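Example with several molecule types.
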Amino acid sequence: MIDLGSPRDLAALALLALGVTFDLLGCLGLVRLPDVYNRLQAGTKCVTLGTFLLLLGVVVRFGFDAMGWKALLCIWFVAMTSPTAAHAIARGAHRSGVPLAPGSVLDRYREDGEARAASPIGAPARGGETP
Amino acid sequence: MKVLATALLALAVWTIVTWAFDAASLGLGVVVAAAVAWAFRRLEMEEARILLSPRRLFWALVYVPVLFFHIVRANLDVAYRVIHPKLPIRPGITRARTSLRTVAGRVLLANSITLTPGTMAVDLVGDLLYVHRIYVPEHDPDGATERELAPFEALIRRIFE
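Resulting structure tokens for the full complex:
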């Protein structure tokens, strides 16, 4: 499949190797970081770039044919869904009371959430202007 | 008009995914695209108008490499913290006010900062963004987040507002 004599295949191989490296670092982050929020940071950053690079490797290897265009489409989908999913998981975790890791220094989301709940009409205590 | 635009987009995705150009495949694609466009006819897509403005489209294209640069920077930052034996993190959730007015602009901003160094959007309440930071600075944490948003806001404003 891969011909080590061709510069194009070498470039693809380099992209694949970099992609796998970033995915590996993302996994390391999942293991080492202390709570769901920090782990999502590793998940959204390293794994997104890792996957981009793997798919770019596919584009370089196959060019703009059936495989290449699908890989580009996947890059677009991952770019849209990965941060959205991270937001949904973080918000869901926070709402169901998953605490920030010990050593966290600030939680404005909780402060403001409590202020909103305490205000008489349940309206935002400050800000919260919608377009 | 809106339904037609959705149908064309659906047909483009269909063509890429099937990668078959005979009459039967394309015909089926037209049928599927029409069904999709009809099913989503009530979806509000006000911001789709950027596709009609070359100037907005240009800034949308400029946004891609800028975002990619920040994604790479984000990765090196997180990779450094993860590999470092002492795990230098100081996590917390900060609050930042955005000056963007459109919903699409705010969503793009929230998704972009999730992909950039050490910040992740947790929630968007009106014009307030709650951002989890992997390293909260000692001095003025909310201001630091707002300063990081500013360059993105400037670009997104050119795209959507």
